[in-house]
User: Fold these one by one.
Assistant:
Number 1:
Amino acid sequence: MSPSSADSTSMLRGRVLAFSAILLAALNLRTAVTSVTPLLDQLGQTFGFGTTMTGVLGMLPTASFALFGVTTPMVARRIGLERTALLAMLLAAVGLLLRSMAGGVGSLLFGSVVALAGMGIGNVVVPPLVKRYFANRVGTVSTLYITVLQLGTMVPALLAVPLAEQAGWRVSLGIWAILAVAAALPWIALARRRPHPDPLDTAADPAAQPHGKVWRTPLAWGMALMFGMTSLMTYSMFTWLPRIVVEAGATPAFGGVMVAIFAALGLVPSLTMPALAVRLRNPFPLVVVGFSAFLIAFAGLLFAPMKAPWLWAVLLGIGPSTFPLALTLINLRTRTPAGSAALSGFMQGVGYAFSCLGPFLFGWLHAISGAWYLPFGFLLVCALVLISASWVACKPQKLEDVW
C-alpha cells in the first residue's frame, strides 16, 4: 500500500470513528434531563420536597448548561476538542450513577450537576467537531446528530415511569450511565489520534485565530436570545407539562407520555431544519412556523388542556424548531472550527443563562396566582423576544467578518 493510500485509509477510518463518536455523544446530551422530570412527584414524596425544589431541579439543566457552555471553549483550547468530548461523557456517566445512589436532596442535586456538567460540555463541543470532520457535510451530519439528540431526549421520558414501577427509581435514573460509558469509548480512540495541545485547526491561518470579542456582535446576541428563549420555553414545558395535565385530571403516567410525545415530535424539525437551513440564505420563515406552533400550544394548554392534549403535545414538539436551526447556524455563520467553538460557547452559555430561570419562574408564578394564566403570559413574552432575536440571527453573515 502506498503512503498516500495509507493516509487516505487512515483519514477514512478517522471520519467513520468521528461520525460514530458524535452520534453516541448526541444520544447522551439530554438523558439526565428527561429521565427525571416524570419522576419528580415520586422523588418529592421520597425525599420530602415540594414545588420549590421541583422548580430548582427543573432549573438545574439550563443553569448547568449555561455555566459549562461559557467555560467549555477555554477547556477545549487547553486540551483539545476530542479530549473535551471524552471528559463530557465521563462526567455524564459518573453523575448519572451518583444521582441514582442519592440518599437525600443534596446528593440528588450533586449527582444531577455532575451529569449535567458533562452534557453541557458536550452541547458546546459537538458543533465544532462536526465542522472539523465534516465541513463539506454540515447539513447532513447536523440533521443526524440533532435527530439522535432528540431520540435521547424522548426515550428516557417514555421509559422513566415504567422502569421505576418495575425496578425502582434508582434503576430508572441510573441505567442511562451505560450509554455514557459506551459513548466515551470512541472518544478515547479519537483523542489518541489528535495532537496535543490541539490547534483547533487555525494554526495554518493566523487570521482565523479566535481573537475577536464574540459578545460585541449582534449576531452572537441574536443567536443567544433565539437559543435562550427556545430553551426557556422548552424546559419550562419539560418540567411543568406533567403537572399541568395532572391538575387537569390526567394520571402521572399520562403526564410522562405527554413529555415523550413532546420530545418525539422534536424529531420532525430535527430532520428538516438543518437541511432547509443550508438551502436558505435567510431561514427566518422557519422561525415563524415554530413561533406559531408555540402560541397555539400554549393557548390550548391554558384554556382547554384535556380537550386535545395530543394536539398540544404535537405543537409543543414543533415549537422548538429554532433549537436545531440555531445549532445548524453555528456552523453556517462561522468559517473555522475555532469560530464555531467560540460562537457555540457564547450562544449556549448565554442562552442557557437567560433560560435557566424559566422553569423556576413558571412554577413560582403558578404558586403565587394559583392558576396558569401568569405562567403562560410569561412564556408569551419570551416567544416575542424569540422571534425578534431570530430576525437578527438569521441574517446572512459570518462571525469572523464582524467580531
Number 2:
Amino acid sequence: MSYRVSSQNLVAIPVYVKHNISFQENSPSGRFDVTVGPKQNMGKTVESIVLTVHMPKVVLNMNLTLTQGTYTFDPVTKVLNWDIGKISPQKLPCLKGTISLQTGVLKPEENPSLNIDFKIQQSAISGLKVNRLDMYGEKYKPFKGVKYLTKAGKFQVRT
C-alpha cells in the first residue's frame, strides 16, 4: 500500500517547545531552558518523547535539573538526549540549568536546533483512514479493526 497526503491536508504538530538557550559574551557559561507540552487535546497521549540537541563544540559540560524523565549529555560528541516519556498536562516537562563553555573562545554564533521524536497510539495524524479491506483466497475471517500509530519523522525546532 502506498499513499500521498496533499499539502491541503496538513495537520498541526501535536507538541510545542518553549526554549531559551543563551550564551553570554565573554563568559564561560550559558543558560539552557526547555519546556515541552501538548499543543492540543486530541484525546490521545503523546508518548515516547525524546529530545536530542547537538550542542556547539565550545560546550564543555551541562549542569541541568529536570521535572520529568532522564537526560544524558556526552561531553565528547556534545549531544544532549532527554528521554521524557509521556507528557502529563498537569506538570509540563522542563529541563533547565547552566552550560559550561571553554574559556577564551568566542561564544557560538548560532543556537543549536532541537530534534524531537514521539509516538501517538491509535491516531493517524495524516488524516488517512482505512474504510475497507478486502482479502481474497483466505479461508479464515480476519479480525475487523485497524491499528493506527503516528511516529515523528524529522521534527526539528530551530532556536
Number 3:
Amino acid sequence: MKAIGLTRYLPISNPESLVDIELDKPVPTGRDLLVKVEAIAVNPVDTKVRAPKDKVEDTPRVLGWDAAGVVEAVGPDVTLFKAGDPVYYAGDITRQGANSEFHLIDERIVGAKPKSLDFTHAAALPLTTIIAWEAMFDRLNISAEGRDAGKSVLIIGGAGGVGSIGIQLAKRVAKLQVIATALRPESAKWAEDLGADRIVNHFGDIPQQMKDIGFPQVDYVLIFNDTDVHFPAAAVIKPQGGICTIVENAKPLPVELLKQKSGAFHWEWMYTRSMFQTPDMIEQHKLLSEVARLIDAGAIRTTLGRDLGKINAQNLREAHRLLEEGRAIGKLVLTGF
C-alpha cells in the first residue's frame, strides 16, 4: 500500500523529511478496524514529532493523527463497526499514523463520520474536536448541557485548529460568552464567523484589552497556543475559575498567579486514553459520535481551512511547512491517494 513516512528526522525543507513509500497492508486483530483512508488532516503534533533530531528509524515511521475513511475489515473483538462503515478519528500516537492507504485503529477511539460531510471536511475535525471537548467538558468540568450558560471563556488561539472548534463548542454547546484572540484581520473574521463574541489582539496586553472590552475577569481560560507566552493571561481568571492548556511549556510557569484565587490548572493531552489504555477509552468514541450528531443537526460546522490536494509526500511537506510558519487558519487537509 502507498504511504508517506520517514526514517530520519529532518527540516521540512529537505525533500527526504517525508517520502513516498510502499508498505504491506496490515491485518486487523482484537478491537482494531482496518480503515481505507480517504482524507487526512495535518496538525502541529505532526510537525513536532517530525522535528529534527538525531534518531534514525530502522523501518519507516508513518505520522498522521487525523483521518476519515471507510472500514475495510474488522478484528474479531469489534462490536461498534462493520465493514463499509464511514468513520473519522484522530488515532493513537503510540502506533503507526494514518498517512497511508490503509490504517489500523482501535474502535473505541473512532466515531461514525458525520453523514452531512464528505471525507475531506470530516477529516478536519477529530483531533482538534477531541482536544477542545476534553479541555472544556472533562478537564474544566464545563457543562455540555448548557448549565453554565452565560459564563465567560477566553480562548487563546481562536483561529487555529483547536480554537476553531473550541469557539463553536463553547458558544453553541456550553452557551458561554466567548472572547478569542486573533492577530490578523482574516483570523479575527474567521473567529467571529465561528461565534466569538469579542476579539482581542493575540500578542497585545491581554489583561488590559479584556478590561477595555468589559471583561476584566472570565470564568475560564483555554490556552491553545504557546503556553510560555500566554500563561500570564491567567491573571484574568475569576476567583475559583479554571485554566487549561494543551501546549507543553519550555520553562517554569508562574502558577502562583492562581494561588490567591484558588484557580484550577489543567493539562489536556488527547492521547492519554489511548496511550495508557484507560478504562474510559470509549469516551472518545462517544464524543466523536455526539459531535457528528451536532454537525448533522447544523449546530456546528467543519473547520476546514484549506485542501492541499492529493495525499503524497510533496503536499504533506507543504502542510508541515505552513504549520511551522504559524500562518494556517483552520485545518489543512489532503484528500485521496
